[in-house]
Design a protein that fits this description.
seven-stranded parallel sheet; alpha/beta; seven-stranded mixed sheet; binds adenosine-5'-diphosphate; binds magnesium ion
């Protein structure tokens, strides 16, 4: 139950005076759904209305608040002309202009002969002063209410700054005095004020420094948000750590045999990571570890060897892949490896025929299957294992923290290894995985050829097609990637289809098309044709399944490369560097290309190190955008800006760990204060399991 002290902040938007249904809908565009969201909607600028001179002292180009008498109304002769109102004080007169306004409204607000207070930007025209559409027109006696600094908020169509100011002021007045959740020493050291004070200060900027993320108020609020995030992750982690697990210590026989048959030696990085995994498996707690490693660094082999450890102990192991294609690919691989080890590996996907499916399910329950490969979806259904000891999740970022926890709640004693090929910069790792254990394979097997990456303008397309034709005639296979052009999939698809038909003119039936709107079966068919070489050129929207392995594909052309995130380009390029042949990646860009975009594309040319690329991308663009936040499952922050506040994140991370050590159930006075924080940032999933 949410503490009642927070209720005013969770009141619906409809409780705010003057905020109607239509505006409530529009505010969703600003991610404002309740009162609390309004207070976290921080200004990006301000207007200073404190300058209140006589008309003769008003300065063109500057906002002024003036007390003036209405002298004359001049209605326009033609529609295109403005409605003019002449006003004056004892020093000088000026003109107020209204374009396309209702005369009746103007006459009501500026009654002839009355004194009024107006505020807005003063302009100069033909030597005299004027003001178009004053921001405010009030009766003269209310002028003092106008003379202040007014925050300027990010807006959306249909919502004016004036409206937001009114609503946010109301919301701010509802902020209760909350018990402090930040450590006192830290508060002193950083010179931070209370949560309430900081909020007020952040909404009342009066100089540019107040808008800086490094202002005390904004720092504190950012820290609050980061602390809530880190605390949630730490709580989740603790919950898992406390869970009992099996002590998996196999006799090593299967592993030995497997390694003897393997045509290569494991890299040092693979060895190191394996030891980390074995240690986890042997511990009496449940394992949850993230295995990070660039495409092609050899994660799958490592995962398989860890699975063998479980099988040696007489248990079952499973691998869940994000797509059918990937599941099948893993299984084909495993089949080969398992056959010389005399153990049984099966594939279970949505496409498995009923009869086979029933056979697999019953054998699985009887323990006759050692290793099962399938898609995530399948494992969320009720697949009953005889005794599942170890599960590998090939993740690709489709899951949030809580979903991940649900996974591990499934099998009681199942150890979990999550694999990801996405190079996640340290900072982001911390915000979406917290202090989850993680291993990193930071070395690629020897003998790999670097990809020859070139950055070229789209005008060269004819030369490129000609070169591609030669390559394909020699037997090469190539991807042609068309980007997300618009939000709408329809338009993207149209672009890809157009490219497909224009390439058909050169390559005939050697070209195939694959896109997100196709049915799984259709996609599989095209992919299969590409694998077997029936198709040599595959035109694709960005759906080329992450991880799909066609070793013969050695060429990739990416259109409008400037529109992709670097991490995404890196993933795509990974498709062609799996083989040991030389390969070529052409990044086509269209003009105009900004300096930043050029710099980004050049990074792709300079390095193939995914971590380096991800770090650079983070520095250039900030965290949220790195993979397109929505798909990536990374947290985005409302108040914190990771490109400048990495330091605060680290502090929050340390602090969260300390809190969990000292007060794991959040039952101290500070613990209860922290619960408020978690609710404020909607991290209450994390506290659901705690006693009130
Ligand atoms: P990832 O899953 O990390 O993308 P894979 O495990 O699929 O990488 O490995 C990519 C390719 O490299 C596979 O063909 C695999 O057999 C091979 N490979 C893995 N480890 C090594 C190694 N140490 N030396 C040489 N080749 C390796
Ligand atoms: Mg793989």
């Amino acid at each position: 139950m949410r503490p009642s002290i927070l209720s005013p902040l969770f009141a619906p938007l409809s409780s705010i005076i003057g905020l109607g249904e239509k505006s409530q809908k529009l505010l969703k565009n600003l991610d404002c759904h309740s009162t609390k969201d309004l207070i976290f909607h921080l200004p990006i600028n301000f207007v200073d209305r404190r300058f209140a001179p006589k008309v003769c002292d008003a300065i063109a180009g500057r906002v002024a608040t003036l007390k003036v008498k209405v002298i004359e109304h001049i209605a326009p002769q033609k529609k295109s002309q403005p409605y003019k109102v002449i006003v004056a004080d004892e020093t000088e007169q000026m003109t107020i202009l209204f374009f396309k306004a209702y005369p009746s409204t103007i006459q009501k607000n500026l009654p002839l002969g009355k004194w009024v207070a107006i505020s807005g930007k003063v302009e100069q025209f033909n030597g005299s002063l004027q003001m178009s559409h004053p921001d405010y027109i009030l009766p003269a006696e209310q002028i003092e209410t106008l003379k202040k600094v007014e925050p300027v908020y990010p807006l959306t169509a249909g919502i004016s700054n004036k409206m937001l100011n009114k609503w946010i002021s109301q919301a701010l007045n509802r902020v209760p005095a909350l018990p402090e959740w930040i450590d006192e020493n830290l508060l002193k050291e950083k010179n931070w004020n209370s949560f309430g004070h900081s909020l007020f200060a952040a909404h009342r900027p009066s100089c540019l420094n107040d808008l800086d993320p490094n202002s005390y108020a904004r720092q504190r609020l950012a820290y609050d948000e980061l602390l809530a995030n880190q605390l949630t992750l730490a709580l989740a982690r603790q919950k898992i750590k406390k869970q009992k697990g099996r002590e998996l210590k196999g006799n090593g026989l299967l592993r030995k045999k497997f390694l003897e048959n393997l045509p290569f030696k494991l890299t040092q990085a693979q060895e190191k990571v394996l030891q980390e995994i074995f240690t986890d498996q042997a511990a009496p707690f449940k394992m949850l570890r993230l295995l990070q490693g660039d495409v092609g660094c050899g994660k799958t082999v490592v995962a398989f060897i860890a699975m063998l450890n479980a099988v040696e102990c007489g248990f079952q192991a499973a691998l869940m892949a994000p797509t059918e294609i990937l599941a099948k690919q893993h299984w084909e691989n495993f089949q080969e490896w398992c056959s010389c080890l005399n153990i049984r590996c099966e594939l279970l996907t949505g496409k498995t025929k009923t009869k086979k499916r029933q056979e697999i399910l019953s054998d699985l329950a009887l323990g006759k299957i050692d290793i099962l490969v399938g898609t995530h979806a399948l494992f969320q259904e009720n697949v009953a294992f005889h005794d599942l000891a170890f599960a590998v999740i090939d993740e690709q970022h489709r899951f949030g923290v809580h979903q991940r926890l649900n996974f591990s709640n499934k099998g009681d004693l199942t150890d979990i290894l999550v694999m990801t090929a996405t190079p996640i910069p340290r900072t982001l790792l911390l915000t979406s995985y917290g202090d989850m254990e993680y291993s990193k394979i930071d070395q690629v097997p020897e003998g790999r050829q670097p990809v020859d990456t070139r950055v070229m303008p789209v005008e060269k397309i004819h030369d490129i097609v000609a070169a591609l034709k030669r390559k394909i005639d020699e037997g090469s296979r190539a991807y042609w990637v068309c980007p997300l052009v618009e939000e709408s999939e329809k338009i993207d698809l149209a672009a890809a289809e157009e490219r497909f038909s224009s390439l058909q003119k050169y390559f005939g039936d050697k070209v195939g098309l694959i896109h997100g709107k196709m049915k799984e079966a259709q996609k599989d068919l095209v992919m299969e044709k590409f694998k077997t070489g029936e198709i040599s050129l595959l035109v694709a929207t960005t759906v080329i399944e992450v991880g799909v392995n066609v070793p013969e594909a050695t060429v990739m052309i990416i259109e409008h490369a400037e529109r992709f995130g670097l991490a995404q380009l890196h993933q795509l390029r990974g498709r062609i560097k799996r083989g040991f042949q030389a390969s070529t990646c052409i990044l086509l860009y269209a003009h105009p290309l900004s300096e930043t975009s050029r710099a980004r594309l050049n990074i792709m040319k300079e390095t193939e190190d995914g971590f380096k690329i991800a770090e650079e991308d983070l520095d250039i663009r900030g965290g949220g955008e790195i993979l397109g936040t929505k798909q990536s499952g990374f947290n985005t922050f409302k108040l914190a800006d990771l490109s400048v506040q990495k330091g605060l994140l680290l502090t929050a991370s340390k602090e969260a760990r300390l809190i969990i050590q000292q007060d794991p159930d959040l039952t101290s006075t500070k613990g209860y204060a922290l619960r408020n924080l978690l609710y404020l940032f909607e991290q209450d999933e994390a506290i659901k399991n705690y006693k009130q």
